[in-house]
Amino acid sequence: xxxxxxxxxxxxxxxxxxxxxxxxxxxxxxxxxxxxxxxxxxxxxxxxxxxxxxxxxxxxxxxxxxxxxxxxxxxxxxxxxxxxxxxxxxxxxxxxxxxxxxxxxxxxxxxxxxxxxxxxxxxxxxxxxxxxxxxxxxxxxxxxxxxxxxxxxxxxxxxxxxxxxxxxxxxxxxxxxxxxxxxxxxxxxxxxxxxxxxxxxxxxxxxxxxxxxxxxxxxxxxxxxxxxxxxxxxxxxxxxxxxxxxxxxxxxxxxxxxxxxxxxxxxxxxxxxxxxxxxxxxxxxxxxxxxxxxxxxxxxxxxxxxx
Length: 307
Prior knowledge:
Helix content is about 30%, strand content about 20%. By secondary structure, the protein is an alpha+beta fold. The chain has one domain. A hairpin with a 2-residue loop joins strand 3 (about 95-105) and strand 4.
């Protein structure tokens, strides 16, 4: 496999800015809808990149472009019966970030990083979540309503602090072993993307009085090495979820801002896995089919200036 090419500084800086805006936008969605579904935060991440998807010529002469594809949905319901014998692949990651580097028309390098996304739960653990029955019931829930509403749903308090948990991460779960197996077999490619408010502690109450606008998140979207997250789970009981404080302590060696992971590390080949044609089949299996485990894919194309 060829060595990873040198990526110009202005390319790295451009991607850092694009992913920093995605970080800010997702944080703003979370703090204004604190019980939002985790999948809606994935959607917000992808949507925030769309304004910068047109090809962009940078001062170095490089041209950058980001393509996005988001299908969401089925991966949250577990492995479907028709996907045997590959049920384990539904446990790996949510978002794929691919990087393709070109010289003129020739593709010279490619790599992939995978993100398993999880959101921080408020102290009351009151969030909207996906379940198979609701998914199958679909939009019927909008029109088949009870004759009265629960007034308590309109008046709720949400607080986030260092004791809050990532409620969808469970010690001893099949997902943990599936991620470990993938990273062992393919090479370390899966990382955790953890959605947090812009700062901690933070509180918000329903009904909202006004919309909170976020400038530069202090905490926000963070990416952690999967090994470090799993090490944090080792001291928990079966099925228990880690607090943000525990993850921060055990994962201190990573704890990257989203934009740092994407631009400063992934683009420069310090995280993720470079792959060639011999491993195309493994990558295609993850992301090609609508029934695959990845709900969204981001493809960053970099065409280097002629030498």
